[in-house]
User: Fold this.
Amino acid sequence: MQINPLKNFSRELETAPDKSITHRAVMFNAFARGEAVVTNALLGGDCRSTIACMRSLGANVTVDGSTVRIKGSPVFKDACLDTGNSGTTTRLLTGLLAGKNVTATIDGDDSLRTRPMKRVTEPLSLMGADVTTTDGKVPLTVRPAKLHGIDYVMPVASAQVKSAIILAGLSAEGETRITEPALSRNHTELMLSAMGADICSDGTTVTVRRSELTAVDVCVPGDISSSAFLIGAGVVTGGCVTVKNVGLNPTRTGILDVLKSMGCIITIEDERMGAERSGTLTVKSAPLRPFRITKEIVPSLIDEIPLLATIACFANGESVISGAEELKVKESDRIATTVKMLTAMGGDVTPTADGMIIRGKGGLKGGGKVYACGDHRIAMSGAICALGSELGGEIDGAETASISYPGFWEAIC
Ligand code: S3P
Assistant:
């Protein structure tokens, strides 16, 4: 995909529906009592993997446009599950199946096969689960077991790990308590609570007890992580972007705090407070200052770091990202792939053990080729680099954007 440079990308538009919320709406309703309708569902590659897995386990899931109807199954069937590229499907399903009377094998694509699963299987084993992995990775197999609650302090802040333990806790004897080092996205807690689960949160600790769920309809807001690329296109080209109906859950809005600190002008209108906060978000570009991202705020912007590193090249001065070693175990090693992408486009970036240092020069020369390395967020960040640069650029592997944002290329061209 060849991307030409652009000045003043200014648009008012909607973005792709939220990936995290779509996964959860499909998965949780698939084992709840009753029927549910999920509207404005994301049908990107990852969420299609979740739908296919829930069908294989016995749930009745039908798709009509962006509406997904789910009739839950109280008893799951034994199955071989292909979770594709999706870490969220893999980790949440592992937790969900651990306490069900089922034997299931989970496997995925080459990228997924490199990603660590012990962070999930270790706490689940402490709960009594019978889970075996392939050297700590997929393929993994879950077998029937009786679970009991644990008090678990997570070594890393991760919504996927937290959610897996919570889901296991729904079928465990007694109470399960999970404490994170920093609060990761809390969509699981909010949705399970709306479905009648016995769950409560206090700061970075979640407590859950055995519960049955009642199906709940979900209207999925836009994904702030997908909106971020449109906003980024505006910021690096001197434009102003308005995204309507976007999710604004405070555990996801770290990028807005960083953009504000860089000088961008941010307004939120039509704010709605359902189970999830949403609204209309406008971000107007301005002369950009460099930023510092440290450990405490990383979970609230973890998926936006390749894009923020891109934007940092358009500021004047040194931006520093630290406390983000989790980037190494995403769809690609995002410290390495982000540095490679920015360097190819003329950026001055140095990787560190837990992040990177970006010496912004107020813009990028461009003219290079970005390899997506099978990572949707690198492909889309590369596009934003190219749009804001002097010479544009080429993206190799552009099709991977459809994992989280089908329609991305049309939205930015
Ligand atoms: C996700 C959690 C995040 C994020 C991923 C989606 C989720 O991972 O990177 O894209 O839906 O729970 P961790 O919180 O596990 O780091």
Q: What stands out?
A: The longest helix spans residues 224-237.
